From TrEMBL, chain A:
Listed name of the protein: UPF0336 protein SAMN05660464_1824
Domain FAS1-like dehydratase stretches: 8-137
GO biological process: fatty acid biosynthetic process
Domain of life per record: Bacteria
Organism of origin: Geodermatophilus dictyosporus
Any one GO molecular function term: (3R)-hydroxyacyl-[acyl-carrier-protein] dehydratase activity
Record family assignment: Belongs to the UPF0336 family.
UniProtKB/TrEMBL annotation, chain B:
CDD domains assigned to the protein according to its UniProt record, in alphabetical order: SAV4209_like (cd03453)
Pfam families in alphabetical order: MaoC_dehydratas
Protein name as annotated: Acyl dehydratase
Entry superkingdom: Bacteria
Organism: Geodermatophilus dictyosporus
Domain MaoC-like: 18-110
Length: 148, 142
């Protein structure tokens, strides 16, 4: 059930707008135990030069996880989701994600590989504001472990 | 309020304060809700063992998020991380008890880059085994 190399470069339509809320940032920060006041107190964030509370560095996954679902929903991407584990993750932050951001994600299949019976799928999600300001690029490598 | 670390105060080899985090099933449930990752391998032993895992495992992204704290708390600004990558080498198995699993995060400056940026190399272990590999963050210091 190897992935078709012809999928590389396939891009999907932009996501609906994800509006970043202060409560969601606070909830996510608490879930990773991040207690920096810049996640919850706008004045503390401003003291560091940010316009509003900022998200932890891995918050972008909240935005990109849903966006990347379009890949798994693509009938031409034959990936057995029940056998999928997360192999690698990379975030490039052009600037921190902050409360009030209205973000649009565009997903592209970056690479497909087959290694030792496992299918490896790398997706790139480019996250930008509605107005086109680049905010974050997320690269996720998923591994579908071959059936034993 | 946190004070931002200055690039002038670090050099290659500078060590970050070590952090140890305890991860319980309750933490996995909380992370599942906050992140939207409801994959049952992170809360159901039945499903986890059914796909060949030793038991319920932590979300790789939770481990990655915990490890980021060593960097952001050191830098004094959670918005200072400009690049962050990891490879999920080995799962963190979280037993169904009150103790959970322990995740230890060590880091040191691996390179001093231009424009006040430094690369931090992280070593993240659980039960003495490395759980993340190639874990590194580029941080913009003051």
């Amino acid at each position: 059930m190897a992935l078709d190399a012809g999928l590389v470069g396939r891009s999907y339509p932009p996501s609906a707008v994800y509006e970043v809320g202060r409560a969601k940032i606070a909830e996510f920060a608490a879930a990773v135990g991040a207690t920096d006041p810049a996640h919850t107190d706008a004045d503390a964030a401003r003291a560091l030069g940010h316009p509003d509370v900022v998200a932890p560095p891995t918050f972008a996954i909240v935005v990109t996880l849903g966006a990347a679902d379009v890949v798994l929903a693509d009938p031409e991407v034959a990936l057995d989701y029940s056998r999928v584990v997360h192999g690698e993750q990379r975030f490039t932050h052009h600037r921190p994600i902050r409360a009030g951001d209205r973000l649009v994600s565009t997903t592209t299949i970056e690479a497909v590989r087959s290694v030792a019976g496992n299918d490896l799928l790398t997706t790139r999600v480019d996250v930008a504001t509605e107005d086109g300001e680049a905010v974050c690029t997320a690269l996720s490598m998923l591994v579908a472990r071959g059936a034993a | 309020m946190s004070a931002r670390l200055r690039a002038a105060d670090v050099a290659v080899g500078t060590e970050l304060p070590e952090q140890t985090h305890r991860v319980t099933r309750a933490d996995l449930v909380r992370y599942a809700g906050a992140s939207g990752d409801l994959n049952p391998i992170h809360w159901s032993d039945r499903v986890a063992t059914g796909v060949g895992l030793p038991g319920v495992i932590a979300h790789g992204m939770l481990t990655m998020g915990l490890a980021a704290r060593a960097v952001t708390e050191w830098a004094g600004d959670p918005g200072a991380v400009v690049e962050y990558q990891v490879r999920f080498g080995r799962p963190v198995v979280v037993p169904d008890d009150d103790t959970g699993a322990e995740v230890t995060v060590r880091g040191k400056v691996g390179a001093v880059l231009d424009e006040g940026r430094v690369r931090v190399d992280l070593t993240v272990t659980s039960g003495g085994e490395k759980v993340l590999s190639l874990a590194r963050a580029t941080v913009a210091l003051a």
